[in-house]
Amino acid sequence: xxxxxxxxxxxxxxxxxxxxxxxxxxxxxxxxxxxxxxxxxxxxxxxxxxxxxxxxxxxxxxxxxxxxxxxxxxxxxxxxxxxxxxxxxxxxxxxxxxxxxxxxxxxxxxxxxxxxxxxxxxxxxxxxxxxxxxxxxxxxxxxxxxxxxxxxxxxxxxxxxxxxxxxxxxxxxxxxxxxxxxxxxxxxxxxxxxxxxxxxxxxxxxxxxxxxxxxxxxxxxxxxxxxxxxxxxxxxxxxxxxxxxxxxxxxxxxxxxxxxxxxxxxxxxxxxxxxxxxxxxxxxxxxxxxxxxxxxxxxxxxxxxxxxxxxxxxxxxxxxxxxxxxxxxxxxxxxxxxxxxxxxxxxxxxxxxxxxxxxxxxxxxxxxxxxxxxxxxxxxxxxxxxxxxxxxxxxx
Length: 396
Ligand code: LMR
Description:
Elements: H1 14-22, E1 29-30, H2 47-59, H3 72-83, H4 88-91, E2 95-100, H5 102-118, E3 122-127, H6 133-138, E4 143-148, E5 150-151, E6 156-157, H7 159-166, E7 174-178, H8 191-204, E8 207-212, H9 221-232, E9 238-243, E10 256-261, H10 265-282, H11 289-299, H12 301-331, H13 340-343, E11 348-350, H14 355-365, E12 367-368, E13 374-376, H15 385-395
(2S)-2-hydroxybutanedioic acid (LMR) is lined by residues 13, 33-34, 130, 132, 183.
């Protein structure tokens, strides 16, 4: 039977990672997959994570299952991180969290929960969006549609077009919004725009689904969550998929959270039981290691301070590289063409090169950029910034 199977298409991000590994050039630069890197190009384990892991080693006395919802301390702590310590929806008892395998696990579980309980829906994704959103959310049977979000030609948000497209959505449609540090374009909604989207969602009876995978890597933990918190305080119902891969550097340990906000506690409890049913039906039991680490960090004052300081340093480094790259490009004669990169948030920006130009920087300079022109700014360093700027100026 297997002779009928065709090879899967390459994942644009992960396939680039593989080609990069094979490249023997020492000057090569990986600006593909979204992982944080130091000046030396390493992705180390964060200090607070190491300390929490030591405690886990000492304290863990069983490997038995933790239950479908995962670790309660993690679920409580992650809600504090996402929604703040005193959010009205949490205080009203209408918010529920579940530990999931990464943010991707949360996206899938929430999409599955919707299809099982509300039927197949139209899910509006931003154009562009993370390359895996359509598979993770559409893969359970939802129809995928796109709202315009960012124009590469002008390197700016297309907010008016976003709003007029969402005006055509039907009640019950789902709108997936990047909580912060938009992947792939790095352009975020400001608070006023979050308010306008919130008003539209309420007026039209849409269900907001926020994917927040880079909290803390834009401006700060609180600033990056402000739009999502504002929306969560006003809409009757909401879904949130959160990832701890980037801000805790726990990529391969796979920990995230699926969050549900319902109209009241009773509905939240019922819907939560169905989310746990989706967990059972998909992977049976949630992971625990990352959940322990994150809960330990968020609930211990000293560990929290240590983690936060390291995260802030990471963010400051990436933001410094954004400005540094723009300055260097302008010094080489770019004439302000790339200035938008300095104001964008998180790990990514579109650098605006054509596919041909991207292939030239790959072939001639060993610089790996996703074909969409998405650059992982965290892969830039003060050592390779001049080399990168020179390569870009050569191909334009
Ligand atoms: C990315 O966008 O590069 C990351 O989220 C990693 C991935 O799985 O695509």
